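ARCHIVE CARD
CATEGORY: sequence design from structure
SOURCE FIELD: tokenized fold
FIELD CONTENT:
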């Protein structure tokens, strides 16, 4: 099935595995907040136990070096698409308030980006991630 929208995560490819997984979870949570329509329906098993909904469509995960991450960030910004970010200093914080304060204290050009989360019209997201390779 081809969805009219696309969800993509771009992760810095030289991070430790635990960092990549952690960033992916944070970015996806941000996207679900910004785009509640991403959520599918709740699950129910045969014994009538209910489970929370998950994202209704595939999430494409790409790897990028720092230069490609910045280029992808600028592509997203120039197209006006809302997106989530994760910066390297957030590994040293322990709560959402400190995370936001860290980003707020940093000029856009100096954000040390390690992750981006995108969701939008498929063709637009495809243009933003053009040339990226899937994370291996």
């Amino acid at each position: 099935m081809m969805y009219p929208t696309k969800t993509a995560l771009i992760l810095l490819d030289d991070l430790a595995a635990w960092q990549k997984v952690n960033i992916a979870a944070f970015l996806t949570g941000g996207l679900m907040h910004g785009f509640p329509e991403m959520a599918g329906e709740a699950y129910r098993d045969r014994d009538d136990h209910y489970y929370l909904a998950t994202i209704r469509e595939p999430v494409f995960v790409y790897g990028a070096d720092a230069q490609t991450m910045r280029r992808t960030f600028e592509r997203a910004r120039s197209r006006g698409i809302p997106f989530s970010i994760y910066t390297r200093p957030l590994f040293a914080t322990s709560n959402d308030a400190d995370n936001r304060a860290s980003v707020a204290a940093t000029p856009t050009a100096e954000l040390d980006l390690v992750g981006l989360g995108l969701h939008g019209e498929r063709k637009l997201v495809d243009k933003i991630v053009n040339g990226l390779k899937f994370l291996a």
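CARD ANNOTATION: The two ends are 24 Å apart (CA to CA). Strands lie at 5-12, 43-44, 50-51, 59-64, 83-87, 113-121, 133-134.
SHELF: design records, drawer C
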